Each structure stands twice: as structure tokens, then as C-alpha cells.
From TrEMBL:
Alphabetic keyword roster: Methyltransferase, Transferase, Ubiquinone
Gene Ontology molecular function terms on file: polyprenyldihydroxybenzoate methyltransferase activity
Pfam families: Methyltransf_25
The protein's name in its UniProt record: Bifunctional 3-demethylubiquinone-9 3-methyltransferase/ 2-octaprenyl-6-hydroxy phenol methylase
Length: 260
């Protein structure tokens, strides 16, 4: 049976499904901090932290981490894992449009499309203002998202599987709706959890609405906020030595912003 529930509320599976790039993403965050900060970062903030896979990875490297998320189940799971591993940090149930950190952060990051859950320009600006207020001057905000170039196919489908211990997690992603005029798309995630014998144990299906971005809209958004300077742009290969030009040639895009 497929349950139409929020996949984000099952972080023990969701984080495993997206965990293969955790080290690569964390390496990039650390490398960007070293490249662009003129101070030694200690406090890291993740709006939309989910179950905390990046919080855990970065805390294990000695950083003091803080995360925000709307999912109570994900926040509870993240805090349990931090405590279990005796790591410094915490997650809180909070809206990334208006949350307040416990202390100013040195670096904030929001990777792999979480930013696109902000469906209007107003909500995106409110979020950027919130993060700017949460950062020290000169601090970084690293934002990663899939953009839709003007000539890109609006239909998309991806499938992958991850095996961890005796569990296999199969993920299928489909674009079920896309409208460039309203800058909206809907992504359907289907997640199947199987045991060591390949028998399905849990099946989940969730539709998530996302905002669409092209290069110039993203650039314009950051300029409207006025609190950030766009330093460089990368792709999801996360090669800190290979910054790219922001253009409609880019699909998977990582923005490195600095708090003015």
C-alpha cells in the first residue's frame, strides 16, 4: 500500500536516500568557508535541515551547528542523532521565513532545492532577510537549487536506489506539473523501503510544490534583498576551484553569497 504522507516526516529513510552526497556537500561548505571568509567559522546554520544529515556531518568535524525545519518528526530525529553521537548542536521547529538563531552564525547553507519550497518572491525575500539577520557581517550563505533553463525539457524523471545495512530504499521523482508563467512545478516523490530479502516494508508518496528559477531571476532576487553580495556560482560537482558564470546554461546551481 502507498501512503500519501509527507516523506520529510520519515527522516530515518529520507536522509539515507539522499545521503550519498553528504560528505561531498559538507566538504564544499568547509572549502567555501576557508576560501571566502576572513575569519575562522565556528557556528553553522541550516534552514530546512530535515533529519540533520548535514548537521551531523559538520558537527562531527567540530562545528557548532543549528538547524531549522517545519517538520517536528525531522527535528526530533536530528536532535536524537546529535545527542546519540554526543555532538554540539541543535535543531528547532521553526519557519525559515522568520526564525531567529540562538547566536549569530558564521556560515549558513541551504542545499538541494530546499530554497524552492518558498513559492513566492515575497516569501523568498523574507527568508533571505531572515538569514541575513542571522549571519555575522562577512558571513556566508550557500544556496543550492535546480534551475530550469529556458530551453530545458519541462518533463523530468529520476530513479535511484540506496542500500544501507539490511535496508534498500528506492526513490522515484517525477515532475507532475510545470508552468513557466507562474514559476511553479510539482515534484512527486515515491519512496519504497525494502528489507534484506527485497520485500517492501513501507511505501510513501508525496507531492511537493516548488518555485522555478532561471538565472536572471535568481540574480535579481539577491539584488533586491540588498543584504548579500553574490561572490561565485558552482554546480553540483562542488569543485571549489572551478567557479562558473551564472547563465541559462546552468541547471544544478550553487550560489555563494556574502553578508554585507
Amino acid at each position: 500500500m502507498t501512503y500519501a504522507v509527507d516523506c520529510y516526516d520519515h527522516p530515518q529513510y529520507w536522509d539515507l536516500a539522499f545521503g550519498e552526497d553528504t560528505k561531498l556537500e559538507a566538504d564544499f561548505i568547509v572549502a567555501a568557508a576557508k576560501k571566502y571568509c576572513d575569519f575562522e567559522p565556528q557556528r553553522l546554520l541550516e534552514p530546512g535541515c530535515g533529519g540533520g544529515r548535514l548537521l551531523l556531518e559538520l558537527a562531527s568535524r567540530g562545528y557548532l551547528v543549528e538547524g531549522w525545519d517545519l517538520s517536528e518528526a525531522a527535528v526530533q530525529y536530528a536532535n536524537q542523532q546529535l545527542a546519540k553521537q554526543n555532538l554540539q548542536g541543535q535543531a528547532a521547529v521553526a519557519d525559515m521565513q522568520n526564525a531567529t538563531p540562538t547566536e549569530p552564525a558564521d556560515v549558513a547553507y541551504c542545499l538541494v532545492n530546499t530554497f524552492r519550497h518558498l513559492l513566492t518572491e515575497e516569501s523568498a525575500i523574507a527568508h533571505l532577510k531572515t538569514v541575513a539577520a542571522a549571519l555575522r557581517p562577512g558571513g556566508l550563505y550557500i544556496v543550492g537549487m535546480h534551475m530550469l533553463p529556458p530551453d530545458a525539457d519541462e518533463d523530468d524523471e529520476e530513479e535511484w536506489a540506496v542500500e544501507v545495512d539490511d535496508v534498500t530504499i528506492e526513490i522515484k521523482l517525477d515532475v507532475t506539473f510545470c508552468c513557466r508563467r507562474t514559476r511553479r512545478e510539482t515534484l512527486r516523490f515515491e519512496m519504497i523501503v525494502k528489507d534484506s530479502a527485497g520485500r517492501p516494508q513501507h511505501e510513501f508518496q508525496t507531492d511537493y510544490d516548488m518555485r522555478l528559477y532561471e538565472a536572471e531571476e535568481a540574480r535579481s532576487l539577491f539584488e533586491k534583498v540588498g543584504d548579500f553580495e553574490l561572490l561565485d556560482v558552482y554546480d553540483f560537482w562542488y569543485d571549489i576551484d572551478e567557479p562558473l558564470e551564472l547563465s541559462d546554461e546552468l541547471g544544478d546551481t550553487v550560489f555563494v553569497l556574502r553578508r554585507k
